Write a sequence for this structure.
């Protein structure tokens, strides 16, 4: 009989609003995502998805994000990935973008960082959520 391994999905959330996110990456507007890790590094994780909640959408139709292991945004874990903004049903200036990552990575430290930019105009990033498991 096969043994089924179960790993619980964890999440990290940065819910500090980043206003006027525009068409260029801005290190002052990155999201900081702290991974819950047992004591001791390195540690293996499987990154699952990134969920970004938006408001104050002005002319933007797409968001490009990348995850980095350094706060300066130079050492990418996930390279620039674009997603269409799915606007709200009742409020068209609110929206969401979702990215499927599916990546195994050995982390030497936490946190990791999410950089975001628009294709046009600007948005407010209300929250960034990363899901992952061991």
């Amino acid at each position: 009989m096969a043994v089924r391994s179960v790993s619980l999905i964890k999440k990290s959330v940065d819910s500090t609003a980043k206003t006027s996110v525009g068409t260029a990456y801005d290190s002052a507007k990155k999201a900081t995502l702290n991974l819950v890790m047992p004591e001791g590094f390195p540690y293996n994780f499987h990154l699952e998805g990134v969920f970004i909640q938006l408001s104050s959408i002005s002319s933007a139709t797409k968001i490009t994000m990348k995850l980095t292991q350094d706060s300066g945004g130079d050492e990418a874990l996930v390279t620039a990935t674009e997603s269409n903004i799915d606007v709200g049903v009742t409020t068209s200036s609110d929206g969401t973008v979702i990215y499927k990552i599916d990546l195994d990575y050995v982390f030497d430290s936490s946190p990791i960082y999410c950089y975001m930019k628009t294709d046009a105009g600007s948005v407010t990033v209300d929250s960034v959520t990363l899901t992952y498991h061991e």
About this structure: The chain has a mean pLDDT of 91. Residues 10-133 form a domain with the Jelly Rolls fold (CATH 2.60.120).
